From TrEMBL:
Pfam families: RasGAP
Domain of life: Eukaryota
Molecular functions (GO terms): GTPase activator activity
Gene (UniProt): Rasa2
TM spans (from-to): none
InterPro entries: Ras_GTPase, RasGAP_CS, RasGAP_dom, Rho_GTPase_activation_prot
Region (Disordered): 243-264
Keyword terms, alphabetized: GTPase activation
Organism of provenance: Podargus strigoides (Tawny frogmouth)
Chain ranges of the Ras-GAP domain: 5-204
Protein name: RASA2 protein
SMART domains xref list: RasGAP
Length: 264
């Protein structure tokens, strides 16, 4: 309440709490306060509160290497596709418009990249940093306690961070997460935006009993997402969310790097 712009306080606060190994109980405390003002389960952790911004900053710091090993190879391929992929996906890499892409090549082009990104994400749980898993575990159980009659809120509480605020944001802005050295060109940006939107939607389906295609105003989007209606996609998301919000000890992945909290 002291800071007009909470962002000014969030980053140093998160770094301080990480240094003293107090971030998880702090996030749990402010998240519980956040949930008291949340009236509907489908809006859990969707705003820019102190709790959500703390988790955002924590993921940027702690999850940097996790993003790199999970997404960088795919992001590099989008920016510099191989000759075979280039011939197949040229309409997507050089799109005229969003509608044009999905109408002229609704299956092969976008589906290829979305499949690849989705597959890398759902099989990456073993690489997820333990601290992120501990935070997700707390958020999941707090949400379930706040809305005991909604069996899916425990998944949406986690997916709202790991899919919407972490993977989807990194896909659409890879340079801000050090996955690319520079801002992508216009054509690549369009491609990454489409992939990001698809990943957000697929991640949200982990908290639903069935896909709600009627929520899409555009007919071409409905047609595209019908190809992802198979139960295996929902089950994959559910299993991934279970894994990354578990406190069970994980086998060493050999992918961790030290987190540097001091700069300058």
């Amino acid at each position: 309440e002291v800071c007009r712009d909470k962002y000014d306080a969030v980053l140093p606060l998160v770094r301080l709490l990480l240094h003293h190994h107090k971030l998880v109980p702090f996030v749990a405390a402010v998240a519980e306060l956040d949930l008291k003002d949340t009236q509907e389960a489908n809006t859990v952790f969707r705003g820019n509160s102190l709790a959500t911004r703390c988790v955002d900053e924590m993921m940027k710091i702690v999850g940097k290497h996790y993003l790199k090993v999970t997404l960088k190879p795919v992001i590099d391929e989008v920016g510099y596709p191989t000759e075979t992929v280039f011939r197949t996906l040229s309409p997507l890499v050089y799109p005229v418009s969003l509608i044009g892409i999905l109408l002229t090549a609704p299956s092969e082009n976008l589906r290829y990249y979305v499949d690849k990104v989705f597959r890398e994400i759902v099989r990456s749980s073993i690489s997820c940093p333990t601290l992120m898993c501990d935070v997700f575990y707390s958020l999941r159980h707090l949400a379930a306690k706040r809305f005991p009659n909604d069996p899916h809120v425990q998944y949406s509480a986690v997916s709202s961070f790991v899919f919407l605020r972490f993977f989807a944001v990194a896909v659409v802005s890879p340079h801000t997460f050090h996955l690319r050295p520079h801002h992508p060109d216009a054509q690549t940006c369009r491609t990454l935006t489409l992939i990001s939107k698809a990943i957000q939607t697929l991640g949200s389906w982990g908290s639903l009993t069935k896909s709600k295609l009627s929520s899409f105003k555009e007919t071409f989007m409905c047609e595209f997402f019908k190809t992802f209606q198979e139960g295996k996609f929902t089950e994959s998301v559910k299993k991934f969310l279970d894994d990354v919000s578990s406190t069970e000890s994980k086998e060493p992945s050999g992918l961790s790097e030290p987190v540097h909290l001091k700069e300058g």
